Amino acid sequence: MSDSLIIIPTYNELENIEPIIRAVMGLSFLPDLLIIDDGSPDGTADKVKELQKEFPGRLHLEQRKGKLGLGTAYIHGFRYALARHYEYIFEMDADFSHNPEDVPRLYSACADEGYDLAIGSRYINGVTVINWPIGRVLMSYFASTYVRMITGMEIMDTTAGFKCYRRAVLANIELDKIKFVGYAFQIEMKFNAWKLGFKIKEVPIIFKDREKGVSKMSSKIFKEAFLGVLQIKIRSWFRTYHRKA
Fold it and tell me: For a disulfide at 3, which of 20, 87, 148, 225, Cβ 3.0-4.6 Å?
C-alpha cells in the first residue's frame, strides 16, 4: 500500500478523467488515487471503473448521488484516507489546471523537508497563472489579500486547491465542523491548520486554466468566500485550537 493518496473530485469530467488518471498513475513515488464522483451524467464514473482493471489496488472510486459540492467531496476523501492510514493526502483538480508533474514537489515538501501542509501556490513568486481573463486573475489575487488582512495568515495563495497534507493535520481538524463548500472551504482548511500551529510551505506552481470541459466556478462560490472569511474569523474568537497528542 502506498503512503500517499491523491483525491480528485469530479463532476462531468469525461474528457479529462483518463488523461489525469494516467498522469497520476505514472508518478515516480507511486501514489494511490481516489476519484470522488458526484453522479456525473456524462459517464465519468464508468470510465474510472474501466481503468480500475488496469490499475488494481491503486485506483479507487467513491460515487455519491447528486452534486454535493467540492468541500463535502474532499471531506469524504479525507475520512477515506484517515480510515486507511495514508500519511500524505493530496487535493487536486481533474482538469490539469494543477500539473501532475508538480505533485512530487508537494510530496517532498512534507516527506523530506518536514512541513505539515504544502500548498501549490500561484502567488508566492508573483502571479503565475495562464489563460485566465485578467479580471479573474485580479479577483483571485486580491481575494487572497483580503483573506490575509482579515485572518492574519501569511499565506499568499489562500484559496489554492492544490495541496498535500500530512495525516496529522487532517486528524486534528474537526472535519464535521467544516462549514463551507467552495473557495471558502479552501480558506477554512488552511486557517484551521495555521491556528493549530502546523508548519506550512507554499510551493510555486504555474496554474493553467482548463482546456477541456466546463468550469464549475460561479458568483455564488465567490460570494461564499467573501462572506465566509468574516464568519471563519468571528467563529475563531469563540473557540480554542488544541492539537491531539
Answer: 87
